[in-house]
Amino acid sequence: KQEVTQIPAALSVPEGENLVLNCSFTDSAIYNLQWFRQDPGKGLTSLLLIQSSQREQTSGRLNASLDKSSGRSTLYIAASQPGDSATYLCAASSNTGKLIFGQGTTLQVKP
Amino acid sequence: GAGVSQSPSNKVTEKGKDVELRCDPISGHTALYWYRQSLGQGLEFLIYFQGNSAPDKSGLPSDRFSAERTGGSVSTLTIQRTQQEDSAVYLCASSLEPRISDTQYFGPGTRLTVL
Q1: How is residue B13 annotated by DSSP?
Q2: Mutate which of B23, B32, B45, B92 to disrupt the A interface (most A C-beta within 10 Å)?
Q3: What confidence score (pLDDT) does residue B100 get?
């Protein structure tokens, strides 16, 4: 049974700092790995999707990496801004598209 | 364009009542998913519809939960004889046909409170 863990559970950083969010999964037979952002009281917004054959994906200040053999993914946020404050969720996908989510990392970027 | 929409946004009900939650996926998306987000359990998969295939119901927590998708578009999640532990935010997501694009687009959710 796939289990997804995110560390840390919460993170507070000053504006401008680069930061890394960690995600680990127990079953390396994933179809893809997705990172989402969730703002309070809102739904999820897809940030990056890494197919199982890929090693990383980039979008603006965000870079996500995937190492299937070690069961790990990281989300790197460069030059953090207060608007980046949110909960970040990673999810491992089976080939049916079913997502198994981690518990999330709540990020606060202080001005 | 229009995203995934869900209704109602909030629902308060009494224990033992039945509730229906609605999801309108993005037009043209063949895959539709229901998830539940609660404080104690995080985000959990409930059910998955893909085209005309039999749905994957492996995440439904009990036989009080059921879902249908009519005409390959709108979906309704029904919870019968609601219990307090059913209180959660119910999220719907849709995606294009698998192997074309796997990105799931989420609706804003329905917050269900069972008194």
Answers
A1: E
A2: B45
A3: 58
CB pairs under 8 A between A and B: 60
Tell me how far the alpha carbon of residue B15 is from its chain's centroid.
20
Residue B98 is predicted with a pLDDT of 66
At position A14, the amino acid (one-letter code) is: P
Instruction: Give yes or no for residue B1 having a pLDDT over 70.
Output: no
Cβ density class A11-37: b for 16+ within 10 Å, e for less: bebeeeeebebebbbeeeebbbbbbbb
CB contact under 8 A, A104 and B42: yes
Q: What is the pLDDT of residue B51?
A: 83
Q: Which residue has the tokens 């989300």?
A: A75
B7-12 contacts: CB < 8 A, separation 24 or more?
B7/B110, B8/B110, B9/B108, B9/B109, B9/B110, B9/B111, B10/B110, B10/B111, B10/B113, B11/B110, B11/B111, B11/B112, B11/B113, B12/B113, B12/B115
| pLDDT tens-place string over residues A4-43 | 999 999 999 999 999 999 999 998 888 899 999 999 888 8
* Cβ of residue A44 closer than 8 Å to a chain B Cβ: yes
Measure CB to CB from residue A89 to each of B43, B45, B93 and give the nearest one. B43
